[in-house]
Please model this.
Amino acid sequence: MRAVFLIAAFVCVLCVIFICYFLFSSGLAPIAEYGPLKFIFGASWKPSSGLFGIAPMIVGSIYVTAGAIIIGVPIGVLTAMFMSHFCQKKLYRVLKPAVSLLAGIPSVVYGFFGLLVMVPAARTLFGGVGGKSVFTASVLLGMMILPTVISVSEAALRAVPTQYYEGALALGASHERSVFFAVLPAAKSGVMTSIVLGIGRAIGEAMAVTMVAGNQPIFPASLTSGVRTLTANIVQEMGYAADTHREMLIATAVVLFVFILLINLLLSAMKGSKRR
Model:
């Protein structure tokens, strides 16, 4: 069994190594040839003219992901706290499968929902503008990260020893204060993990964002502006891209991979500092 476990772990690590090798071996050379600063900070993406600046897509990805975090993380964490310490058993039997079902909905279905329901609603809210925009994409992604944030946060909250909660009660705290000020801080590491996983889901989503974000490779001026993310840029143009254009799309994937890698390294660093 030790050999089986070792092989399983080795396969997982090997998959990561293969992905890293493919991305960096195929994407670093085009970046070096075009110019790293010109590629990352360039303001124009016009493949027909030989311009491959991805700064608007980077800013668009950050805006949309930040909006999703602002919307999804508070709702997700509070829902996890409710399910773990406030929810009645009868309601939990309904709420838990609903959260699991939310996680199983394909992203294209989320995209159709956003296109047919959220885009018209946003257009009405902003007086005829802002249908396909940063705002709509942020709200949709906030919905999509909810299952990840809720599931991981709930597991972290339930893993906290009951002595934390009982000790707070013994000191005179109410049920609510015991959960918020004793249990939640003890589960901070797991909650942070859920947030990072949610960020990874939001920044890596392509299909749903493509359908509601507006597909405009420009710097977004406001919440009602159309936007194009890094993932949407790759999905929309990879089907017909060739030669240099295709290489620069792979380079865009490298930048996206590095973003997610930095987020995970930041989480690991935060966990290490807290343990010390």
About this structure: The CA atoms of residues 258 and 264 lie 10 Å apart. The chain has one domain: 33-238. The longest strand covers residues 45-46.
